[in-house]
Amino acid sequence: MGGCFSKPKPVELKIEVVLPEKERGKEELSASGKSSPRAYQGNGTARHFHAEERLPAPHPYPGTQDCVEAAVCHVKDLENGQMREVELGWGKVLLVKDNGEFHALGHKCPHYGAPLVKGVLSRGRVRCPWHGACFNISTGDLEDFPGLDSLHKFQVKIEKEKVYIRASKQALQLQRRTKMMAKCISPSAGHSGSTNVLIVGAGAAGLVCAETLRQEGFSDRIVLCTLDRHLPYDRPKLSKSLDAQPEQLALRPKEFFRAYGIEVLTEAQVITVDVRNKKVVFKDGFKLEYSKLLLAPGSSPKTLSCKGKEVENVFTIRTPEDANRIVRLARGRNAVVVGAGFLGMEVAAYLTEKAHSVSVVELEETPFRKFLGERVGRALMKMFENNHVKFYMQTEVLELRAQEGKLKEVVLKSSKVIRADVCVVGIGAVPATGFLRQSGVTLDSRGFIPVNKMMQTNVPGVFAAGDAVTFPLAWRNNRKVNIPHWQMAHAQGRVAAQNMLAQEAEMSTVPYLWTAMFGKSLRYAGYGEGFDDVIIQGGLEELKFVAFYTKGDEVTAVASMNYDPIVSKVAEVLASGRTIRKREVETGDMSWITGKGS
């Protein structure tokens, strides 16, 4: 596939893609049907686009001086189902042997740079050990999330029992490949009051929807609108590194949106949606008509309703500005975090190095109790206490007291009084769907948007994705659930885009999430809500463990620390459709799951 060898395969077509300066790389179109003409509805008229029409003319092979080629091992060095990281002059390559065939790919996950050799190889794909993204070993394409980019695929040949890899130096250094995308050829861009696709919300779901449409050859107008003042950014990082600046968090550079004609309206609040006339109205009076709509508004953080809630220096975290302000105010001062869920605990962990004191207030008796159970919660709580975090459990805030308008003390219902210069509230969130109340789009009693497996709402042509939806979870008997994970939002945005193009895609992703505190990561896969037992292997005290969450005789979720790639392995088993029985994990014999093969 690398296009560097002298003998071309007849079915391959080499195309140079114009990518933003930073991401410039090369990608091939194989005869998998991606380069065949496709028809899309564009403002009511079917248009055909050929690969050649939307991209510069095919350019057969790059200059050989850009390439590096070397023998990396003997054919017998790798067993089937084995992966190895090999050196190739300018960088490393992941070499995979599967069903007797060798494949060579980029070795780092484009999401956060995890070494894929430590991941899980199964069913023709490799799954990242850190956050569960999956890549097809034959193409390098991203098949499951998080992250936006794919891997480079390098050419392999076998000569005299030796395995040779040939790759472009640029691809070796880049370690990521942006899938080929169509450009916008719609003349109305930037002026008219109508768009083909309107996406409300520019988190992971909104961005992946827009990118997927372009990857699938859609070349009409796409407008992405957001309440934020920034282009789409990595929101999960906000609570893990509160100092991060917006430009460090950006998921794509400004040039990317320009290059592919994805228009982003920032600080744009939709106040009404009229599904009968396919029109939305913004707060400033601007009206926009659409033919397809994605609702991905995310959620709004819950706030305290106690006495003194309006005093200064009490925050929820929604934007980089919120996070940066909290760190500034907490330096050398007293910080109080309300809520011992993921967001609250990540913030507390981050502030321990910065603040004079950090206290956590929580209604439950242990942190993460509903999600991770009593024992895991207690082990994590001990880690925090060892880092001088003080806990006030089974109580809540009664009053926030101020001095000259600024927070001075937090008074608890247990009558304790905590000194506080800054307070961070992480007590959950509600779907940000108030603007849909009169729209005709169905909302459930809690304000979530119910969708089917194709992410369609009750209104034809209107899709929804991300934290604000409930959807049927395929591998849990289509139970309607809300899963506000970053990775799920990516997957739902993709499925919504595919169905806007009538591809009949369905949600099948296994939920995967992670948290990072004091330099340690906890990973989690599955859907454990309502678990009735937790089976723990390894040592909780030394935080090297795996916890299996069960309901009846079935394993529904898994969490681990310092036990990679077990969570990715379980995610892969669940994704394959296999049920894991409680008795399989009770014995402590994990060979069935930790074995290298699939």
UniProtKB/TrEMBL annotation:
The organism sits in which domain of life? Answer: Eukaryota
Pfam families given for it?
Pyr_redox_2, Reductase_C, Rieske
Q: Which regions span the lipid bilayer?
A: none
Q: Where is the Rieske domain?
A: 70-165
Region described as Disordered: 22-46
Q: Which GO terms describe its cellular component?
A: mitochondrion
Entry's localization field: Mitochondrion
Is Mitochondrion one of the keywords UniProt gives this record?
yes
**Keyword field:** 2Fe-2S, Apoptosis, Electron transport, FAD, Flavoprotein, Iron, Iron-sulfur, Metal-binding, Mitochondrion, Oxidoreductase, Transport
UniProt keyword Flavoprotein present:
yes
- What Gene Ontology biological process does one annotation of this record name? execution phase of apoptosis
GO MF annotations, alphabetized:
2 iron, 2 sulfur cluster binding; metal ion binding; oxidoreductase activity, acting on NAD(P)H
What does the record give as the function of this protein?
Induces apoptosis through a caspase dependent pathway. Reduces mitochondrial membrane potential.
- Homology family: Belongs to the FAD-dependent oxidoreductase family.
PANTHER family, from UniProt? APOPTOSIS-INDUCING FACTOR 1, APOPTOSIS-INDUCING FACTOR 3
Q: What is this protein called?
A: Apoptosis-inducing factor 3
> What species does this protein belong to?
Erinaceus europaeus (Western European hedgehog)
